[in-house]
Amino acid sequence: MTTYTGVVRRLLLSSSPDNRAIERLQLSFYLADPYLHSIGHAVGNVMERGSTKSLQFTIWADTHHPSYEHCVLLGQRFMSFFQACPSAFRWLTSLILQNLTFGDSDISKILNICTKLEFLSLTYCDSVIDRVTGDDVVLTIDVPRSALVAVEIITCGYAGVDLIQAPKLQRLVCANWIGVNPPLRFGNVPHLHSITLRHAALHWQRPFLLSHCLSNATSLSIMYLNFADQMIWIEPEDPKHLSPIFSHLRDVYLYNIFYECDLNWTMFVLEAAPSLSNFYLKLSRHPCERSRCEDSAKKVNVPWDQTSPDFKHHWLSLLEIVGFVVDEKLTKYIRLVIELAVGLKRIRLLDQEPCARCNAMNNGQPPSPTRWRFPVEEEEKNTIRQQLVDGLSSPVEISIG
């Protein structure tokens, strides 16, 4: 850090008003004393000139796998840095943090001071446990005058995330939460158009209704849900409850659905999203149980037989399935989509990507082809294409591989 700090200071000093201006400044450094204030003041001096349009801090812990006590210390160290260098943070547009344990109101202080902040990423972060209840703290984002456009909350220790006011927020990523479901609650987020949820469900987390979680997110156009090969953590529901939320939805990704799970439940998403154009599914067959831990929820099938008898989808253009195999269940599902999506133009069927851990379990060989077989020969592919459209008047183009 001594060498790094010296280089940063020399670089920023060389960008005096008489020399070329720095339009974009991205700094990555460890949260280590006594260097932070020196970096912060040097950055602040440059930012006060007003010629820098973008400032990003990526800040790492000063040790691998820090203990909880050390994360508390790092959180205090960051807040000391933040308070000592207001000129730098006032101009900050992107902040990426890892392994910090904050005080109760620290995040609110950061967001209220960093009024130009557009991107916030928290990984392995949390807040000190509530001393009265002993519970984890809910992360509250209430910034009605914020410039915040994108937020990432990944593997953090919060009980949940409450987005009360984030009027410019457009993209949200939430992954690997520890609290009970649902993990999010939305208030005023009128411009939120993209949401990504990635999670391997834990045994204390029950499936939740998307309508309860996303009730105020009515501008969504992209939804990505990744189930990490484990329990499906959303509960199918009456599409009419989701239609106001999904009215603008164009692209849906339902990824890493465990292979044994029936797929008909995905129809409730299709029926609730009349403007959906692209539907991406990824099936997961991993004997290595790559995402499983001792706290994982039990994987159970998701039954669904409530599709409206007169339902037809008129805008779906593409169905893509990654992890396709020769399988009667998949054939029936694809035929169902073709029957209901009357404007479907293309179907892409792709093989699952190789997994080194699964191959290692089979002495370096792929899983048994008698269980999971992707068609290779063109003659077999043509047979599958015929089976998928047999008796259906559909001009859909089907590509395999």
From TrEMBL:
Top-level taxonomic group: Eukaryota
Pfam families: LRR_At1g61320_AtMIF1 (PF23622)
Domain At1g61320/AtMIF1 LRR: 88-365
Alphabetized PANTHER family for the sequence: OJ000223_09.16 PROTEIN (PTHR32153)
Name of the protein: At1g61320/AtMIF1 LRR domain-containing protein
Native source organism of the sequence: Urochloa decumbens
